[in-house]
Amino acid sequence: MKRDYYEVLGVSRNATKEEIKRAYRRLALKYHPDKSSDPNAEEKFKEISEAYAVLSDDEKRRQYDMFGHAGIDSQYSYEDIFRTADFSDIFHDIGFDFGFDEIFKKFFGGFERGFEKRRKGRDLLYSISINLEDAYFGTEKEIEIERNEMCTECNGTGAGAKSKIISCPICNGTGEIRRTERTPFGHFTQITICNECKGEGKIIKNPCRICRGTGFKRVRRKIKVKIPKGIKDGMHLRLEGEGDAGEKGMRPGDLYIEINIKENEKFMRDENNLITIKKISYPEAVLGNEIEIETFEGKEKINIPPGTQSGEVFKIKGKGMPSLSKKKGDLIVKIEIDVPKKLSPRERKLIEELAEEMNIKMNKRTFSKYWRK
Fold first, then answer.
1. Is 335 in a helix, a strand, or coil?
2. Structure confidence at residue 255 (pLDDT)
3. Cα–Cα distance measured from residue 237 to residue 234, given in angstroms and rounded to the nearest whole number
4. pLDDT value at residue 98
5. Domain 112-163+206-262 has what CATH class?
6. DSSP state, 248?
7. Which parts of the chain have pLDDT scores under 70?
8. 165: buried, middle or exposed (CB in 10 Å: 19+, 13-18, 0-12)?
9. Tell me: the pLDDT tens digits for 135-154?
10. Which helix (H) or strand (E) holds 283?
11. Which is nearest to 243 in space by CA: 64, 54, 114, 71?
12. Are the C-beta atoms of 35 and 103 separated by less than 8 Å?
């Protein structure tokens, strides 16, 4: 099982690019197989290099932070991970006079030629907003997405009828352009994708009239998404095979559904518990009463004992949110004593009598002035 990339490099999840680079430079010097006596140096060097290649690339890091290793492994091959990483200045700084393409060949088996490589389809991300009640009961939503699907005119080849496919004369069919520069530290080889054939190694003389040689067509599709009860805000659902089509027969990508749960007027969620505020009158707080509490499944009754204070909480077991493991949380009822802002003459008289009974001295001038408003 792969370790967390941040843990591998020994940096925090909010580390800057420079901090990530410094961490990799230190570890590369420590574990380079030609310099280290550690018997596991080669494996450790592979591990730290992969972690740096992902975390030093903004898009790959975003995918990793969102989906973890699954987001990288499902979308990128080893070649994809390392192709955009810039290791040259790091290796020069620590005294190694070669480019990373040589290291990749030695430890990872080298890059594949562009036209031999076929990529799976790109994963897609779609955000859905639902109500807390939807998260409580579970629901089904229909969404509309736009994605690449295989062109049915050319069956994804990109070639028109009777079109010739020739080897690219610029890269000689490799899909890559190599440029070697001599530096004070030795020869440095840079590999880039051939712009003429876009890394395919082959050129289509007469592209498909529908997809213009891409092998794809842009299509809008409606998809039904089942949202399980108990889902939490920020969770992602994975719909396998519902992303972009893959290149030339490779499997399609996946569609990730990001769940956003709107705030609810009556309930606040705390993990699998629900919290609600219930206002009661002063007489109910003093004398106690049986009161009704609203839940998503109807009304529940609870007993308020005499002398209940504002801020006290009561728990109704099993009436909170369901969880994905089927066990429900509790409903937490927080009591607030509702102090009236207006009183009838009789109510005011009774309150004054109660104050006298309790030996509470009232400033009648202030009291009368306030209640005349």
1. strand
2. 92
3. 10
4. 45
5. mainly beta
6. G
7. 33-35, 74, 77-79, 83-119, 182-189, 249, 325-326, 363-373
8. middle
9. 999 999 999 999 999 988 88
10. helix 282-287
11. 71
12. no
Burial class (CB in 10 A: 0-12, 13-18, 19+), 58: exposed
The single-letter code of the amino acid at 184 is P
**Do 263-339 and 112-163+206-262 have the same topology in CATH?**
yes
**Burial environment of residue 103 by CB neighbours within 10 A (0 to 12, 13 to 18, 19 or more):** buried
Tell the CATH topology of 263-339. Answer: HSP40/DNAj peptide-binding domain (2.60.260)
| Domain spans of the chain, in order of start | 1-111, 112-163+206-262, 263-339, 341-373
Neighbouring residues of 43: CB distance < 8 A, sequence distance ≥ 6: none
Query: Fold for domain 1-111?
Result: Helix Hairpins (1.10.287)
- Determine the Cα–Cα distance for residues 355 and 60; give it in Å rounded to an integer: 69
pLDDT score of 66: 82
Note the pTM of the prediction, 2 decimals: 0.57
- Alpha-carbon distance of 155 to 151, in angstroms, equals 6
